[in-house]
Amino acid sequence: MFFEDDAQYGGTGHHAREVAVTTESFAKERVPDNTMAIEFENLTKSYESGVLALDSLTMSVPRGEIFGFLGPNGAGKSTTLRLMLDLLRPTSGSVRIFGIDCNGGASAVRGRVGYLPGDLKVYPNMTVRSSIKLFSALRPGRVSDAYVRDLCDRLSLDTNLRNRELSQGNKQKVGLVLAVMAKAELIILDEPTNALDPLVQREVLHILGEARDQGSTVFFSSHNLAEVERICDRVGMIRNGKLIEVKRIEDVVSQRLTVLKIGFSQAPPSDSFFGLDGVKVTLTNDEGREVHLSVSGQVDAVIKAVAQHHVLKIEIGQPSLEEEFLALYERNVS
Amino acid sequence: MGDPLFRKSMRDLRGQIFGWGLGMGAVLALTVGLFPSISDLYGDMLSDLPDTWAGLIGEGDLGTLAGYLSVEFFSYAPVALAVFAILAGGGLIVGEEVAGTMDLLLSQPVTRLRVALVKLSAFTVSLVLIVGLIFLCFIIAALLISETNSMRRVLNSLLLLVPFELMLALAAAMLAQLFASRLVGGTMLAGFLVASYMLDALSGMSPVLVDMRPLYLISYFQGAAALNGDISWVYLIVSLVAVAVLAIANVMFFVRRDIAAGGVLRLPKRCWRRGK
Questions:
Q1: Strands of A92-97's sheet, edge to edge?
Q2: ipTM computed for the complex
Q3: Model's pTM, two decimal places?
Q4: Under an 8 A CB cutoff, do B107 and A115 touch?
Q5: What tens digit of pLDDT does each residue of A295-311 get?
């Protein structure tokens, strides 16, 4: 058994077998109710320095959803997550998880939550195995030995290594195992695929999808729109501490910007692309023979307009997250 | 003992327990071992010194093992062990925040109160174990020189190290939280301790310095006095009250404030807003 050969931090293999059964029962017995998984109400956090890290965040996340919390670095994502875990205290407003105020019932909330911190640090002198064992012992009856082993296998995590010997990617895997191993009702992850290679990233997204299928709610922050698109049901976008928009992922995809870089043999007339819905000329070079367009939503009309001219080359790309946010911001302002 | 956090804390402290316990125990054993050969010579030398100079060395009847140890070991033992108390105490609460592991720990279903109490308890137990190891070394050395009369008095003196070092550790923990820096808090406390040690040693030379004894941290260690049978209960009670007040203040502050993130201990000044 996973826990049998290290008796420092808790139960025996027999105990682990017992908790495996208990955890399966726990997942099946989870009774859905009408309470939202997460409710933010005017949640605000400011620091003495005058920095407003989070400004009146109000939104809710229903149970069983994978919610992506998207924003550039420094937007307030980690602050929001730390407020949910009661690691930070709000300046005003509140956040409730399963109807429980995080500031008042932090321990009760955390019993139902798995969390991966953004800047993950694990005890350097412990092995991966003893770390898992320590944190399992803090959630008695909640962690399945078999599930932990399965997670470690799927993430190719060697549990015999000491934490201080781990690469950043392997530390992230340890954090992921610790966050999801209890099959918590709510899994909160701060940039979960950081430092992971693409294959492991894909596996992590599978694991989160499975958690949702078993009834868990997943709330994770990211600055990678493509990653969010692959797995989320809805996405909230935050910038400079302010929530810009909450959307279903289909709407995000349909309105997503596409960047076209087109080279013409002769410069097209300057008004060729004016009047097309959602199209913006961002740059013209080489005496008008190279044109950069940013297109929101469908590209059909612009491709047809481009096809009126002799095209030498065309590059299609995705804008940076910051450009996406600026576009969203401009749309919201207008 | 069954609490996994307590076991983890004890495991983290075990190197220091054995290092300090056996290290100081070895020094005490060596001091005891030298007693038969050095005590008469030392006594004659002290009797030739003026009273004020003899006061610098310490008070005690050097003809007895208890008196000899009050001068030769217990005059500096609390200051030496204070290095452990201040270093470990400074990291008691904020250590995990500096290391960046507190977020992971507090994301588990444990209250901050439990985390703080477990850490304080583990530190207290580690102090008792260090004292136990020192006493064990003393017993071995005392048996070797067949000096078993002072056992109880030495044990009492060693046990009086516990509240004194605990007071220093909790003060270091509190300063580390208030100044958001283990270094600043520890340096301030160590400076104050060394200054009071020096002034206390010089107090035999000036009545003014004697009157200022309540201000000296070292006065609150009554172990050396206990060996000579003239313990001041006021100092002892004050140190016990200080331990209780500092423990409560540390826990209250930790429970109510924001947790520092990213290995940078940056505590907001007004982090007392509310908390459970």
A1: A52-61, A38-46, A92-97, A100-101
A2: 0.82
A3: 0.82
A4: yes
A5: 887 888 888 888 889 99
